[in-house]
């Protein structure tokens, strides 16, 4: 931890005070209590919009499964949000969905699939106190059968019109806004640990400075 702190102290001299203060402010609202899983989305504006919502509502980690489709990010839609999040990619040839399921569950998350077509819990009744990975599936078809069979539960947004489903990015925004607002009113320790904040802050500082490799080499030589 001391090494990370020393690097942070060194790099903060190379950025503005306002930027450092902004990092600290945002980190206070970041969480790993919730995470998001994107399974095989192919429309880049949907993935980009979800990533933007993750940043806005304080979700730090995003898991991206690539089976049939390669994920793309539209900076025009994401507005640079992808720069501040941590992505865990599952893009090998085989078993991408299973690899993600195993990784998420081994990290202590329950796997909750968003679907209006199964015996789902309504969003307002969902228990936000448990560590949860919310899964959003490919447009039209939804999540895979493999994901459904291994899910720990299902969640749906109440709908009162003729249409049976929401655009996936809209559904993600509604769910993330709801659960993050409610967790902040609970007694759950939802915020990042001090060590997690330091790791992320160091990463953000590095992304904010040009020629960072050269600068870090200069830092190493000074030790």
Nutshell version of this structure?
With 223 residues, the chain is of the alpha/beta class. It has nine helices and seven strands. The chain is 44% helix and 15% strand.
Provide a descriptive summary of the structure in words:
The protein has 223 residues and is α/β, with parallel strands linked by helices. It has a single domain, classed as 3-Layer(aba) Sandwich (Alpha/beta knot). 44% of the residues lie in helices and 15% in strands. The chain is built from nine helices and seven strands. It has helices at residues 2-12, 17-27, 44-56, 75-78, 96-106, 145-150, 168-183, 194-208, 212-222; strands spanning 34-39, 61-65, 86-90, 110-114, 121-122, 132-137, 153-156. Strand 2, helix 4 and strand 3 (86-90) form a beta-alpha-beta unit. The longest helix is centred in the last third of the chain and has 16 residues, at 168-183. The mean pLDDT is 90.
């Amino acid at each position: 931890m001391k090494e990370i702190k020393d690097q942070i102290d060194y790099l903060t001299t190379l950025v503005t005070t306002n930027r450092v203060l902004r990092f600290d402010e945002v980190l206070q609202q970041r969480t790993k209590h919730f995470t998001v899983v994107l399974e095989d989305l192919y429309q880049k504006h949907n993935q980009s919009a979800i990533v933007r919502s993750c940043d806005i509502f304080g979700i730090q980690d995003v898991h991206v499964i690539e089976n049939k489709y390669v994920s793309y990010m539209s900076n025009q839609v994401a507005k640079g949000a992808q720069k501040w999040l941590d992505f865990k990619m599952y893009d090998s040839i085989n078993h991408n969905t299973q690899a993600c399921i195993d990784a998420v569950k081994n990290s202590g998350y329950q796997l909750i699939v968003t679907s209006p077509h199964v015996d789902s819990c309504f969003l307002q009744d969902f228990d936000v106190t448990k560590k949860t990975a919310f899964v959003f599936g490919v447009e039209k078809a939804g999540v895979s059968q493999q994901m459904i069979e291994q899910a720990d539960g299902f969640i749906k947004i109440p709908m009162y019109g003729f249409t049976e489903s929401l655009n996936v990015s809209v559904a993600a925004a509604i769910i993330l806004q709801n659960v993050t607002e409610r967790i902040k009113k609970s007694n759950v320790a939802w915020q990042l640990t001090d060590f997690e904040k330091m790791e992320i802050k160091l990463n953000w500082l590095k992304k904010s400075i040009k020629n960072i490799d050269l600068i870090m080499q200069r830092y190493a030589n000074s030790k």
